[in-house]
Design a protein that fits this description.
- There is one protein chain.
- The protein is α/β, with parallel strands linked by helices and 222 residues long.
- The protein has two domains: 118 residues, 3-Layer(aba) Sandwich (Rossmann fold), CATH 3.40.50.2300; 57 residues, Arc Repressor Mutant, subunit A, CATH 1.10.10.10.
- It has nine helices and five strands; from the N terminus they run αβαβαβαββααααα.
- It has a five-stranded parallel β-sheet with strand order 2-1-3-4-5, with helices on both faces.
- Helix 2 crosses helix 5 and helix 7 crosses helix 8.
- 31% of the residues are buried.
- This is DNA-binding response regulator.
- InterPro entries: Sig_transdc_resp-reg_C-effctor, Tscrpt_reg_LuxR_C, WH-like_DNA-bd_sf.
- One of its GO terms (molecular function) is DNA binding.
- Keywords: DNA-binding.
């Protein structure tokens, strides 16, 4: 299981940006997602999902890894999202070929700053993956987490435990190591509101205290 890095000032600012809060000294960063899928419906769906993301993300559809080289690079992080449907062997085989070409280019020293993420319900595999059946809201949240944490792409699977928007924000802020007063400032609520929201979060997750919450990863319950 991958661990989240916490407590650095840069990371706190990143989390603040993810929560949609503007810090006075925070610059606007444009991240990039290069999406491979022969399905035009999927291409439109990913672009629409990221329109509601709390950070700026440019979604570019590509047919080959070489197309990534010709794309103007922004100042943000970059990930490659590859659609490999578990029940569509034809598309999955094309995804495998794309991934093989990408790996070859990475072995030559290119794309070293790009993380790879699969959109697939295949159980086994080397790379991190997202479920094919996430709602647009959950997909936007998961891809936002992935693109703001290069090399540490979290996998979000649908679960029975659904968190409210405020509980999700308190969860992310808690895992980032923010204190109650910092959460209150970031979320624009009172400290009492943070305590109440966190207690509700603990109850919903079946946890006894904040220490148990800090010991969990977001992949365990989102």
């Amino acid at each position: 299981m991958l661990n989240m890095k916490i407590c650095s000032a840069g990371y706190v600012r990143r989390i603040a940006g993810f929560l949609g809060t503007c810090w006075e000294n925070k610059e606007i960063t444009m991240h990039q997602i290069f999406f491979f899928s022969p399905c035009h419906y999927m291409q439109r769906g990913i672009k629409e999902a990221m329109k509601i993301a709390p950070v700026s993300v440019q979604v570019l559809t590509v047919n080959s890894p070489e197309e990534i080289l010709s794309a103007p690079q922004t100042d943000g992080n970059r990930i490659v999202l590859i659609s490999a449907p578990a029940k569509n062997p034809a598309i999955a085989s094309r995804a495998s070929l794309f991934l093989w070409k990408l790996i070859r280019l990475k072995s030559t020293g290119q794309f070293l700053d790009i993380s790879v993420l699969l959109l697939s319900d295949r159980v086994r595999g080397k790379y991190s993956r997202l479920s094919e059946h996430l709602s647009p809201e959950r997909l936007s949240y998961a891809l936002t987490m992935a693109v703001t944490q290069p090399g540490n792409a979290l996998i979000f699977q649908p679960r029975q435990c659904h968190l409210s928007p405020l509980q999700q924000k308190i969860l992310v802020a808690s895992l980032a190591g923010l204190q109650v007063d910092e959460m209150a400032k970031v979320l624009n609520i009172s400290q009492r509101g943070v305590f109440a929201g966190r207690n509700a979060l603990l109850n919903k997750l079946g946890l006894r205290n904040r220490l148990e919450l800090m010991g969990l990863m977001a992949t365990d319950f989102i």
